[in-house]
Amino acid sequence: MAEVKELVIQTRLGPRTISAERIIDFPRGIIGFEDLHRFTLLQIKADSPFLILQSIDDPEQGLLVADPYSFMERYEIKVGDTEQKILQLQDRKDVAVLVTVTIPPGRPENTTLNLTGPVIINTVSKVGMQIPQTDAALPSHYLLSEKT
């Protein structure tokens, strides 16, 4: 049987054709979406730091995410040994870090990055995982209007 190289998925942004190579497997799902395991990243606009982590299996489900380093100089996360094994991490340069973005209805000036639940993706193995951070000394959110 021939391997599927592209597939068309429905999204809130309309139908999108994605390469099968862009599918990211989340063996444990994502908090709130534990039953969904296949996602892809969709660009909203070419120059935007925001992406949609779109479910392949449920077109209604997608999370607005961003690279926190586009907004902050320092953001350190802890990835335990078990998580490193699941992610098949061999080299730190193969890691993409994303955080979820919250835009309160009618108040875009209060948009925040959620720093407590980063999404870590091994860009080589295409395995992802959300890894809650429990260090109470670190801020839980970053208000984008604080960006200088």
UniProtKB/TrEMBL annotation:
Subunit structure: Interacts with translational regulator CsrA and flagellin(s).
Keywords: Bacterial flagellum biogenesis, Cell projection, Chaperone, Cilium, Cytoplasm, Flagellum, Translation regulation
Gene Ontology BP terms: bacterial-type flagellum assembly; regulation of translation
Species of the source: Desulfocurvibacter africanus subsp. africanus str. Walvis Bay
Classification via HAMAP family: FliW
NCBIfam families associated with the record: PRK13285.1-1 (NF009793)
Pfam families: FliW
Encoding gene, per UniProt annotation: fliW
Name of the protein: Flagellar assembly factor FliW
Annotated localization: Cytoplasm
